[in-house]
Amino acid sequence: MGISGDAIDVGAVLRDLRRRADLSQRELADRSGVPKSTLARIEAGRGGEPAFRTVARLVGAAGGELSIRLHGEPPGDKVADSGGVSLGMPVDEPRDEADRRYPAHLDVRRVRTLKDWPGAWWAYSYTLPRRSWPLRVPELTYDLDRARRDRRRWRQEAQARVTFRRAFEDVPATSWRLVAEVPGAGPVGELRAHERSLDLLLGEDLDDLRELVIESVVVAPDLRFLGIGRRLVELLATEMARVGLRTAHAVAEFGNVYFLLACGLELRASRPSALMLDVRGVPVPGVSPAQEPPS
Questions:
Q1: What is the per-residue pLDDT for 294?
Q2: Under 8 Å between Cβ of 43 and 14
Q3: Using an 8 Å Cβ cutoff, are 63 and 17 in contact?
Q4: What residues form DSSP beta bridges with 68?
Q5: pLDDT (tens digit, 9 = 90+) per residue, 106-155?
């Protein structure tokens, strides 16, 4: 982060750095060797201007970077790419009902629906009418559990950075592989499909008409319900239109049926039903149970 001659809210910057590093005041104080009372005064804007050495120790312990440059001089590549924040930028800091700042590292968020609030475990399926809520729902909430905060941040980062493409490497000519990727993390979702010939399927000369069969749509468990699977299906439709394929089929069960319906696929009542015969435990005429082949 660069320092210019303009006024700087060092306390706001330190709170933002702590949030990004997921550090409480006590944890940052222990890392930097700066007393927690000193850190609290700096963040609250009390006690005058802090010493530069103190600020440098706190910023470094929080994973930030300080640099000094002449007024008007553009930042170097190292500073620009360091992921730091600008010291002059305003920081949105929500406060509780007593006008106190929330702990900066807890990622405070607004409660828009009951499922946004961890305390609403009592709201089965989040469908209770407001008059039936046994507890007053707060305007803001946060996760105390660090693993849950990390998971929420990872979901937000992945959703913002995910890219989609059709992969052609190591794929047969009649197979389709569409991939969702997060830079630096690799694949987080995949759709596989294959082409089939209607001429061979129906035994008719249909001028080599083809269609697709969707084999699977897979998304990393921690990134489900972010729309990644739907966007893979949308990319499939775009690629099909590009190469002149009009129809894709899929066989699904349980909740996967509703997912594919939400993606625009339709149920085909004229298609044969999927059936299964399980012969385990069925007596075979002329064969005693001891002679039956193992299952």
A1: 55
A2: yes
A3: yes
A4: 3
A5: 888 888 888 888 888 877 766 778 888 888 888 889 888 889 889 999 99
Contact 6, 88 (CB under 8 A): yes
Beta strands at 67-68 and 248-250: parallel, antiparallel or unpaired = unpaired
Buried-exposed string 223-243: b where 16+ CB fall within 10 A, e elsewhere? beebebbbbbbebbeebbeee
Nearest by Cα to 104 from 3, 184, 9, 185: 9
- Contact (Cβ atoms closer than 8 angstroms) between residue 214 and residue 193: yes
Chain Cα centroid distance, residue 162: 9
Listed range (126-130, 159-163, 164-168, 276-280) with the worst mean pLDDT:
126-130
Handedness of CA 28, 30, 31, 32 (dihedral sign): positive
- Residue-level pLDDT at 101: 80
CB atoms within 10 A of CB 217: 23
Q: Which residues are within 8 A (CB) of 210 and not within 5 positions of it... i.e. 6 or more apart?
A: 195, 196, 197, 198, 245
Q: 215 by DSSP, 3-state: which?
A: strand
State the Cα–Cα distance between residues 35 and 33, nearest whole angstrom. Answer: 6
Smallest CA-to-CA distance from 216 within 181, 244, 253, 173 is with 253
- Measured over the CA atoms of residue 56, residue 62, residue 67 and residue 72, the dihedral's sign is negative
Sheet with 210-219: list strands edge to edge: 163-167, 175-182, 186-197, 210-219, 248-250
Closest CA relative to residue 17, chosen from 64, 57, 53, 50: 64
DSSP letters along 38-78, please? HHHHHHHT-SSSPPHHHHHHHHHHTT---EE--TTPPPPHH
Percent of the chain with pLDDT over 70: 81
